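User: quick one, sequence for these C-alpha cells?
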C-alpha cells in the first residue's frame, strides 16, 4: 500500500464516495462543459485538500453531508484557481497533462474557471452551508490578494522574508487552513477548536509551500514544474531571499540581474541556483520548513488520539517529504 493510501485509510470509504459526489456536482447540460469536466476528473491528483477536510472532520466527530459539501466546495474553487492561474501564466501543461487553455484556448478556460466558481457557491448555498461558505470565500479572497501582492513585488525584485511569508500564507496556507477549519466546522466543533484547526492548517500550508519552492532547486523536480521555473518567472522564494541577505549590495545586484534575464538565458538559472546553494539558502529553508511542521504537529497535540489524528500527522510529514 502506498503512503498516501495508508494516510487515507481512516476515510477511504468517504473518499470513494466523494469521487461520485464530486462527479455529480460537475454535471452540466452543455456538451462542451461535460467534455471538459470529464477531462478534469480524469486528471485529478492526490486530492490532498478533500483528504484534509475528511480527516479533520473525522478527528472532530462523524463525517456527514456537510463534510462532503465542504470538500466539494474547496475542490471546485481550488480547481477554478488552477485553471485561471494557467491562463495568467500562459502555462500549457500541468503535472504532465495539457492545461485547459492549451486544449480549448484561454477564453474557454476562463469561462470554465468561472463555471466552477459558481458551482462551488451553489453547492454551499443549496445545502445551507453559510458558515463553510464564509470560511472558503475568505480563503479565496486571500489567495487573490496574495497573487497580486506577489506580482507587485516580483516586478521590483525586492521581496523581504517577512513579505514572502505573508504571500505564501495568503496564496497557499489559507486554502489548507480552510480545509481543516471547514472539516471541523462540518461536524459542529467549538469556536476554540475551529481556531486551532485553522492554525494547524496554516502551519501545514506554509511548510507545504516551502517544500514546493525547494523543488525549484532540485534536479528531476516534480512533473509540471521544471527546475528553475520560479527563477525564470522572477519569483523570489525563501532559498533565494535568504541567500541574497547573506551578501553585500554589489553581489546582490549582480544576482538580481541574472534573475531578471533568466528567462532568456538558461546559464543564468544555473548560476542563481549555484549561488543559493553556496549561501546556505537550501539548508535554511529546510530548517524553516521543519519548524512549521513541528508547529503543525503541536497544534494537534491536545486533540484525543485516533486513527484520523494519526493520519493527519502522517499527512503533515508527507507534505514536506514528498518528491513531487
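Assistant:
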Amino acid at each position: 500500500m502506498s503512503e498516501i493510501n495508508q494516510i487515507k485509510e481512516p476515510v477511504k470509504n468517504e473518499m470513494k464516495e466523494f469521487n461520485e459526489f464530486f462527479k455529480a456536482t460537475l454535471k452540466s447540460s452543455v456538451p462542451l462543459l461535460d467534455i471538459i469536466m470529464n477531462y478534469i476528473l480524469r486528471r485529478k491528483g492526490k486530492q490532498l485538500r478533500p483528504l484534509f477536510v475528511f480527516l479533520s472532520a473525522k478527528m472532530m466527530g462523524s463525517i456527514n453531508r456537510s463534510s462532503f459539501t465542504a470538500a466539494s466546495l474547496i475542490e471546485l474553487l481550488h480547481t477554478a484557481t488552477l485553471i485561471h492561474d494557467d491562463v495568467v501564466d500562459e502555462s500549457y501543461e500541468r503535472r504532465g497533462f495539457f492545461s485547459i487553455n492549451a486544449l480549448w484556448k484561454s477564453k474557454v478556460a476562463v469561462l470554465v474557471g468561472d463555471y466552477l466558481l459558481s458551482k462551488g457557491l451553489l453547492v454551499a448555498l443549496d445545502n445551507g452551508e453559510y458558515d463553510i461558505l464564509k470560511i472558503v470565500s475568505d480563503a479565496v479572497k486571500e489567495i487573490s490578494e496574495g497573487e497580486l501582492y506577489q506580482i507587485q513585488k516580483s516586478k521590483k525584485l525586492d521581496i523581504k522574508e517577512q513579505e514572502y511569508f505573508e504571500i505564501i500564507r495568503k496564496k497557499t496556507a489559507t486554502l489548507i487552513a480552510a480545509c481543516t477549519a471547514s472539516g471541523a466546522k462540518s461536524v459542529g466543533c467549538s469556536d476554540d477548536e475551529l481556531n486551532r484547526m485553522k492554525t494547524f492548517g496554516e502551519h501545514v500550508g506554509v511548510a507545504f509551500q516551502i517544500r514546493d519552492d525547494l523543488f525549484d532547486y532540485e534536479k528531476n523536480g516534480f512533473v509540471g514544474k521544471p527546475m528553475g521555473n520560479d527563477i525564470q518567472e522572477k519569483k523570489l522564494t525563501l532559498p533565494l531571499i535568504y541567500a541574497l541577505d547573506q551578501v553585500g549590495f554589489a553581489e546582490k545586484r549582480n544576482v538580481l540581474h541574472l534573475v531578471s534575464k533568466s528567462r532568456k538565458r538558461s546559464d543564468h538559472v544555473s548560476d542563481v541556483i549555484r549561488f543559493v546553494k553556496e549561501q546556505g539558502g537550501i539548508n535554511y529553508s529546510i530548517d524553516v520548513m521543519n519548524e512549521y511542521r513541528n508547529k503543525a504537529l503541536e497544534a494537534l497535540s491536545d486533540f484525543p488520539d485516533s486513527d484520523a489524528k494519526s493520519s493527519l500527522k502522517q499527512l503533515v510529514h508527507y507534505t514536506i517529504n514528498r518528491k513531487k
